[in-house]
Amino acid sequence: MDSGFVDLHVHLLPGVDDGPPDLDATLELAGLEVADGVVAATATPHVASVDVAELPWRVAEVNAALAKAHIPLVVEAGGELGVRGVPRLSAEELELIAHGPADARWILLEAPLDGAMRTLHGAADQLRAAGYGIVLAHPERCLPLFDDDMRGLMRELERGSLAQVSSSSLLGLHGIRARRNAARILAGGHAGLLASDAHGPRRPPCLTAALRAACELGLGVEQARALCADRPRALLQEGLRPLAPASGSSYVAGSDVSVVRRPPFGVAAAPS
Ligand SMILES: [Fe+2]
């Protein structure tokens, strides 16, 4: 178990979003995950498409079906939270999609494909203020994050967010700019982890191929493997805390960057 991949972004739940339409399709996708080397995953439906309160029993249903079908994949409940959904969720709902131990809970926040930077930074700040660390899903697909020497992305990283690069981006499925941005994150040492954002057979996991692509960018095999295995596993076991921005941060101006002044977090309090 400890040597396999851990996929922290996959649309695995049946019939809730643009992932598998039914349980059979979920099992098919789970089989693709296992064939790709994944041993554990978080089911991360688009939060706006699902009743968050249903996630625990929906994931339990998937785990039971996986066991019955002898597919060796362990699934934990999560969600891919859109930036506009952050203000709409209660504290209890945020907890249902969060991961990690009580003193280091974190949430998968979707980098918006429409490039709404101000909304992204505002949503991220709101989650940090509630004590959550942030794993930023596919930042390479949010093109304005890369303007001005990746100013927007750096704003997030210096506040403790981790960049989750998608295997499909690295392999060119989302176009040349997303691929170039993914390579830029990896080659610059800014990647926190790789995940699949898989949806089904037409958008499969491809983590093994992404690992190879990362090596072609100059990463060592162990370094690339850690992005698919050790780092995501540690995120589940050890969690992630937000950071206060460094004093003298350069991210205090600009037309689409929220300026937030608040005292340092230190060790973030666990959300209740
Ligand atoms: Fe996704």
Automatic annotation (TrEMBL):
Alphabetized GO MF terms: manganese ion binding; protein tyrosine phosphatase activity
One Pfam entry name: CpsB_CapC
Catalyses which reaction(s): O-phospho-L-tyrosyl-[protein] + H2O = L-tyrosyl-[protein] + phosphate
Enzyme Commission numbers on file: 3.1.3.48
SUPFAM superfamilies: PHP domain-like (SSF89550)
Protein keywords: Hydrolase, Protein phosphatase
Domain of life of the native organism: Bacteria
InterPro entries: Caps_polysacc_synth_CpsB/CapC (IPR016667), Pol/histidinol_Pase-like (IPR016195)
UniProt similarity note: Belongs to the metallo-dependent hydrolases superfamily. CpsB/CapC family.
Protein name per the record: protein-tyrosine-phosphatase
Phylogenetic classification of the source organism: Bacteria, Bacillati, Actinomycetota, Thermoleophilia, Solirubrobacterales
